[in-house]
Amino acid sequence: MSSVPLPPESAGGHLRHVMTSAAAALGVEPFTDRLGLPPASIAVVVLADGLGDQLLAAHSGHARFLASAWRNPRAAQVLDTGAPTTTAASLASLGTGLATGQHGLVGYDVFAPELGRVVNMLGQWDHDLDPLQWQPHPTVFERAAASGVRVVTSSRPQFRDSALTHAALRGGDFAGAQALEQRFALAADWIRSHRPGPGRLQRGRADPLLVYLYVDELDKTGHRTGAGSDAWLTALEALDAAASRFCQRLAHDFGQQVTVLLTADHGMVNIAEEFRIDFSARTDLLAGVAHTGGEPRFLHLYAAQGAHPEGIADRWRDAYGEQAWVLTRQEAIAKGWFGTVEEQVGDRIGDVLVAAHAPLALFHTTRTGPGPLKMVGQHGSLTEAERRVPLLELTGRGFVS
């Protein structure tokens, strides 16, 4: 088995520091600027779902505006996203400033001990699962708004009242649009509605503004056709053009008052069809397993009552130990994969975790149906391609050393 990867935050910054650092750069206490952001009165965080650092590096010719920041040491950092590298977990870390083991969104599908079944953490929350009980910690948006900051999320309309939003991104205003360009326009218009532009007088002290702008086109396209595909490159070019126009407009109107950051929730790797493996018929691997969860590159295996996790882990190591890291829950927690794990969160984590490091994805279609087998782009594990994401400062102000 390949050596187990270092835990998140073993070196450098983490995605969970982005929104808290942005709030600190606005002067909000008691947040700490862990990332060296320049002081601002307008802070914008653009989250490009699926744009891993390696993907941006490999396709920088299709993102010249973003690449100009990425190549500038003063304007670029590389962040860790934690475990697992999946949208629900990462957005919860971004929105709360907490590690996975604290906010409790520990995967895509996870076991809810109080309900006795596996539940979804992204877009299909069960009706009897209360987001505020599942993730009770206040969000950065709530804390910033309570301190006098005006906050807005610009995203797709269907996310306005989603369970994930209520769990991890609640607080402030919401502006919804399906089209990528329109989401940028709504964010810019909201800023202008709260802050006079050139030649207009401001009466009194202007409230600080915190903007969260969500872009999911790259992730959706990558799942369908693969990261780096023609369709994916078209989506990257559209993001680059929209971000360029947005930043030029804000820099012209507000100058040194504004900082625009772009980051991502995870990277993505392409998995060939022959390496998308359905283990539903493997009775040897499912012996002693009551529930499966997680995602194809980061499985959670929940042991049946009386079954021994060590035995389950041994069988999976025999089958996939050369292609995946196989750890028990206790081993993964001891390794720091989930950060500090709060009491109510521990049993949501699988008794055994199978995190692929080879180009491999493992599916339990008896539970999920066959649809996920069609997905080309995958993420979830702790490879460098999946866990490292860029942090770019796009207004030319750079990070403070």
Automatic annotation (TrEMBL):
SUPFAM superfamilies to which the protein is assigned, alphabetical: Alkaline phosphatase-like
Family annotation (Pfam families): Phosphodiest
Residue intervals passing through the bilayer: none
GO molecular function: hydrolase activity
Protein name as catalogued: Alkaline phosphatase family protein
Taxonomy of the source species: Bacteria, Bacillati, Actinomycetota, Actinomycetes, Micrococcales
